Amino acid sequence: MHVWTRTILFCVSLFTILAFVFSGCQPGPAAVPAGSEKVITIGNLGPLTGPLRALGQASVGVNDYITYLNETQGGIKYKDPKTGQDTIVKLKGLMGDHAYDGVKSLSLYERYKAAGMDLIMCCGSTPAEAIFSLCARDHIPGFVVTSGVSPSLYDVPEPYLAMNGAAQPIYTSLLAAWYADEWKKSGKTEKFKIGLIAADVPTRRLCDNDEAYGFKTYVRDVLGADLVAIAYIPQAPIDVKAELSRMVDGGANLVMVDHWGTSAFRVLMNDAMTLGMHKKGVILNLEWIPPDVIANEPAIFEEYNKVSRVEALSEGWCGNEPADVQAKYPGLKLAFDVCAKYHNGDIPEKQGGWFYVYGVKEMMLGEQVLKQTLERTGWDGFSKEELRKTIFNMKVIDTGGLCPTFTPDPKVLMTLPSMAVTDIKNGQMITDLNKRPFLASNTGNKIWPDYKLTMSADWLPYIWTPPDFPRSLMGK
Hints:
15 helices, six-stranded mixed sheet, alpha/beta
C-alpha cells in the first residue's frame, strides 16, 4: 500500500475515533429529573388473532379509551388531596396479542411487568386464569375484560385480578331460567328440554362438575326442566351436525351455544339449517356471537326466525342503538363517540359490537378506580397495593347505563353481573329493554350461597332475576 494511502487511512480512522470520543463529551438533551413525569402504565392483553379474535375487539375498546383520555384531558384528571388542585397523570397503554392462549398470556404478562405495568386489563377467561396467581404474587391489580371466569380467580388469599362476568354455571343457569320462565308463561305443560353446546376451552367445562357448581341440579330441581346433553366443539370447527343431532334426538326445545368464535357460529348456523332444526321448533340462543356473522349472512337468520327463534346473548348494548337511546345513557353515547373518533366515524357495531362497547366500559371503570385512588392517596402515595384496595372496595359501579348501576357483593366482586337476551333481525342484534330486561345474577348460587348485590332502584324495572338456588339443594 502506498505511504500516502496509509497516512490518509490512519488520519480518517483517528478522526473517526476522536469524533466518537468528543461527541460523548458534548452536552446532550437535558435530563428529566426522576419522578417529574407522572405516568401510569396499563397492560392490555387480548386475542387479536386466531379463531377467537372477535373477542379481541374488547381490547381495542380498552386501547381506544386510553387514547381518548390522553388526547382529551391528558390522562387521568384528579383533585390532589393535599393541595386541592386539579392534577393530571398521563396513561401509557401497552397492547399485545395472546391469541387466546394461556402460555402467550403469561409471556405478555412478564414483558409488561418488566415494563412497569401498574394496572392490567386481560380479555379472555382462559388467558386471565393463566395469570391471576401471578397478579396476586406480584401485586399487580386489574380487571378481566368481557369474559366470564371460573371461581378459581378468587382462590388466592388476596386476589388482585377482578372478575368481569359470572362463572359459566351461573350465567348459563340464568339464561336457562329465563327461557324456562317463558316456557311456563306460554302455557305449555310438557317438560322443557334444554341442550348446551360450548367452546372446548377449560373455563367452559364447569357445567359438567355438578357437585361443585350445581348447574345440572339447578336445571332439574329448580327449573323443573330436563338437560338433554352437554357437548363441546372446537374453537374453529368444520362440522357440528353430530353435536346438534344429539340435541335434536334428545327432544331439546332450546339449545344454548356458549361460544364466541366467528367461524364456529357460521358453521353451526348452516348445519342447524341443514338439519332443519328451525322446522322442528328448536330455539337457538347464540351466546356471545360476533355481530359480523349475522351481518354477513342475514338470510340464514331470517329464514330460521320465520318458523322458530334464533336469538343471541350479549353483555348488554349491541353498538347500533339509535340516538334517542344513546341520549338516555351517557356511557353508551361515550362509547359511540370514542368509536367514531378512532374508526373513521364507525358505530361500535362495525368494530365488534358489544365486544367493543364493553371493552370501553371496563376501561371506564379503570378510569374511575385510578381517579379514586389518586384522590385518596395523591401521586406520592399512589401504589399498586392502594389501587387494588380501591378496586376491591368499590361501593357502587356506575358506567352511565352500559350496565345497570349496582352495589357489588363485597366478598365476591363482579364488575358486570348482568347480560341481555337480544333479538336478531335484519342482519343485526337488537337490545330492547322494553321487550326483555337485563338478566342479573344477583342471588345466591351453589358456588357462593350468600352472594348478593343490590341494584339501583331506577334500574329495577329493567332487571330480571332468576329463582334462587335453595340451600336445601346445596348438598346434591
